[in-house]
Amino acid sequence: MNNNDLNESEHHIYPSLDLNIVTRQEHNISRKQISDNALKVLYRLQGAGFDAYLVGGGVRDLLLEEVPKDFDIATNATPEEIRQLFRNCRLIGRRFRLAHIMFGRDIIEVATFRGHHQEENKQLAAQSEAGMLLRDNVYGTIDEDAERRDFTINAMYYNIADYSIHDYAGGLEDLEDRLVRLIGDPETRYREDPVRMLRAVRFAVKLDFDIEEDTAAPIEELAPLLRDIPAARLYEEMLKMLQSGHGLETYHLMREYNLFQQVFPTIARHFTEDYSSQTEHMLDLVLDSTDQRIEEDKRINPAFMFAAIFWYPMVKLAEEMMETHNLNYYDAIMEASNKILDEVVKSIAIPRRHTATMREIWQLQLRLPRRNGKRAFRLMELNKFRAGFDFLEMRGEVEDGEVKQLADWWQTFQTAGRNMRQAMVTDLDSVSKPSSTRRRRPSTRKKKSKPTS
Ligand code: ATP
Ligand code: MG
């Protein structure tokens, strides 16, 4: 390794790694497990005289005998050189310049080896005062590339030239011991990129590994660094974490490490010692049901999940606003929805189309109690009725009582035949007591802001 020209402090951050080469006979990865498209890219690069390796999660998961989510490739070809080799290539990214080779919907990501930041590279690599990497486009050698990766288990390279595995940071041993271990000094690596704290939790849950002691130690204290991460990146990361099929466990581990509280400050205000608030109950329910749906290969909608996560904090705020702003329940919910969503998107950038659906689901909660006349029939025609009803059922589990009864009524109504439905509605009319609209204050202008249907 030619690390001789690194200065002392860089040695501290990036201890020279010991390369361990595992030959083709000594490991269990076969080319049959690698996607055709990834192989095509590897061979094309190799054919043009470049080094080409499969790297990261692809290698890690194959060694664990799991099916990789995707295959990432690292090479000494520059993005420009990559582009010249592939017609179906797009260069993307400002933070890291990457090549995407497109095969229909399958995208193979090809990254040029990244190097260290040295004085002469100042314009290319920017670092904030807190030590965070802002831009990171310095090309380097494979050794340097390995040192800059996050965890030892993510720094293994499968060489297409001889099918060997280059293990730079002891990843094989950590795979064996089932440990998530950062490469280099943990605090420095977290300060460079605080998202690595989230990734540590994500991999620990996904792989059922432990977070190695020194890697785990600084997290709780450094967790507030996440507040400086752009909201769009946090949103992406949260989807990966909460919609991974292990959302519930991920949330619990994030919370133990004080990470969830940073990403969702709005919710954390309602956290209790014994996980007993309605907010926490709802979180458990929605994440558990999301995990189940993924297990069953059913579709999941981030908007539904976020609507559930923020519902009780929003309702609590609405109740406060009824007092302080002298609003009726309906108007207070509208105001509180705006306020909560404005606050939320500052830390995680939930896209507009999803916040719109969240509002729809929330507004349906106000409409579902009002079932008389033709209303129940009309409600069922709505696009978001199903989501609104599923949501109501979940609330029924949290709140019990009236909401549970209402959810049961809707359950029966949906499965009932025409005559029975009519009878159910008539029955409501004959009782004609607005029991489930208890919270609505008498208002003469209640029709004014009827939600769109
Ligand atoms: P997954 O199964 O979730 O795709 P992965 O390990 O492939 O896991 P990616 O996010 O696809 O994760 O990243 C690919 C590789 O890039 C990682 O394995 C790691 O080597 C490197 N990497 C990604 N993010 C970082 C980061 N924040 N800091 C350092 N290295 C990173
Ligand atoms: Mg990956």
From TrEMBL:
<keyword id="KW-0547">Nucleotide-binding</keyword>
<keyword id="KW-0507">mRNA processing</keyword>
<dbReference type="Pfam" id="PF12626">
    <property type="entry name" value="PolyA_pol_arg_C"/>
</dbReference>
<dbReference type="GO" id="GO:0005524">
    <property type="term" value="F:ATP binding"/>
</dbReference>
<feature type="region of interest" description="Disordered">
    <location>
        <begin position="427"/>
        <end position="453"/>
    </location>
</feature>
<feature type="domain" description="Polymerase A arginine-rich C-terminal">
    <location>
        <begin position="326"/>
        <end position="443"/>
    </location>
</feature>
<protein>
    <recommendedName>
        <fullName>Poly(A) polymerase I</fullName>
        <ecNumber>2.7.7.19</ecNumber>
    </recommendedName>
</protein>
<dbReference type="InterPro" id="IPR002646">
    <property type="entry name" value="PolA_pol_head_dom"/>
</dbReference>
<dbReference type="InterPro" id="IPR043519">
    <property type="entry name" value="NT_sf"/>
</dbReference>
<keyword id="KW-0694">RNA-binding</keyword>
<dbReference type="Pfam" id="PF01743">
    <property type="entry name" value="PolyA_pol"/>
</dbReference>
<feature type="domain" description="Poly A polymerase head">
    <location>
        <begin position="52"/>
        <end position="181"/>
    </location>
</feature>
<keyword id="KW-0804">Transcription</keyword>
<dbReference type="GO" id="GO:1990817">
    <property type="term" value="F:poly(A) RNA polymerase activity"/>
</dbReference>
<comment type="similarity">
    <text>Belongs to the tRNA nucleotidyltransferase/poly(A) polymerase family.</text>
</comment>
<dbReference type="GO" id="GO:0006397">
    <property type="term" value="P:mRNA processing"/>
</dbReference>
<dbReference type="InterPro" id="IPR052191">
    <property type="entry name" value="tRNA_ntf/polyA_polymerase_I"/>
</dbReference>
<feature type="active site">
    <location>
        <position position="150"/>
    </location>
</feature>
<dbReference type="InterPro" id="IPR010206">
    <property type="entry name" value="PolA_pol_I"/>
</dbReference>
<feature type="active site">
    <location>
        <position position="70"/>
    </location>
</feature>
<dbReference type="GO" id="GO:0043633">
    <property type="term" value="P:polyadenylation-dependent RNA catabolic process"/>
</dbReference>
<dbReference type="InterPro" id="IPR032828">
    <property type="entry name" value="PolyA_RNA-bd"/>
</dbReference>
<comment type="function">
    <text>Adds poly(A) tail to the 3' end of many RNAs, which usually targets these RNAs for decay. Plays a significant role in the global control of gene expression, through influencing the rate of transcript degradation, and in the general RNA quality control.</text>
</comment>
<keyword id="KW-0548">Nucleotidyltransferase</keyword>
<feature type="compositionally biased region" description="Basic residues">
    <location>
        <begin position="436"/>
        <end position="453"/>
    </location>
</feature>
<keyword id="KW-0808">Transferase</keyword>
<dbReference type="Pfam" id="PF12627">
    <property type="entry name" value="PolyA_pol_RNAbd"/>
</dbReference>
<keyword id="KW-0067">ATP-binding</keyword>
<feature type="active site">
    <location>
        <position position="72"/>
    </location>
</feature>
<dbReference type="GO" id="GO:0003723">
    <property type="term" value="F:RNA binding"/>
</dbReference>
<feature type="domain" description="tRNA nucleotidyltransferase/poly(A) polymerase RNA and SrmB- binding">
    <location>
        <begin position="208"/>
        <end position="268"/>
    </location>
</feature>
<dbReference type="InterPro" id="IPR025866">
    <property type="entry name" value="PolyA_pol_arg_C_dom"/>
</dbReference>
